Target: MipA/OmpV family protein
Amino acid sequence: MRPVNFYLTHALAAGALLSSCAAALAQTPKPLWELGVVGGGVSTPAYPGSADRSSRGLVLPYLVYRGKIFRSDESGIGARLFRSDVAEFDVGFAASLPARSDDVEARRGMPSLGTLVEFGPRLKWTLSRPTQGSRVRADLPLRTVIEGRGGLRNRGWTFAPRVIYEADDLGNGWSGSAHVGLVAANDKLNDYFYGVRPEFAAAARPAYDAKAGLVLARAGGSLERQINPGLRMFGYLWYENYALSANDASPLLKKDSGVSGGIGFIWTFARSARSAND
Model:
């Protein structure tokens, strides 16, 4: 599974990831809706711990809607059920593109990883506001994971807490964010990625039954620059460590760490005159 482009643990469909990589605080006041195009290129491990990489270029529609309840914005897609000065609670979605096992040496001959959709609640808590244009917040998403290949199948659940620093003005049109976090999953989801059923076992890939627990620890950041009112450029870089993974004994976990990165643009060609009522 990949990101965002993106595999599950990154928090998004490829287009959603590219959009969210512009993850700094947006300018205010924000329009109720925006329409445009998002594009870019990403490179990431084929799945967490894979020795093979996946690179992809994308150009996709970009739609932002900042309603009181239903929202599609820099934080993702979902329904915001509660908001105060320090806390926000929503139910949202994220997705990942499929990964063909024929393209991954360690998984050759095994079933491919299908398109995955995450759905579930998330609590966002503002921990501090160091300056007027910055904040530190905690994100606590708990999501069930559904595979869409050949019908809908529940693949388990994931919990991905992280702490994020966001700054909306670094000077000269730049904004940015940085984060640290963990990703954990139940035994069912970990087995989807790291389990090897007996019929797929080989000399270099013994049978393995995955267990619940930590998938990875992650640190990363993104930068965005406003070129003009309709055009933004962005880039991101993530470092992931799998050394403490609950399934470090899996024959499919080939590396102790991995790096993902990407660059892209967002071209907004239409926006509402009405401002969002945040």
Observations:
- Confidence is low (pLDDT under 50) at residues 1-27.
- Residues 197 and 207 are 6 Å apart (CA to CA).
- The chain has one domain: 2-271.
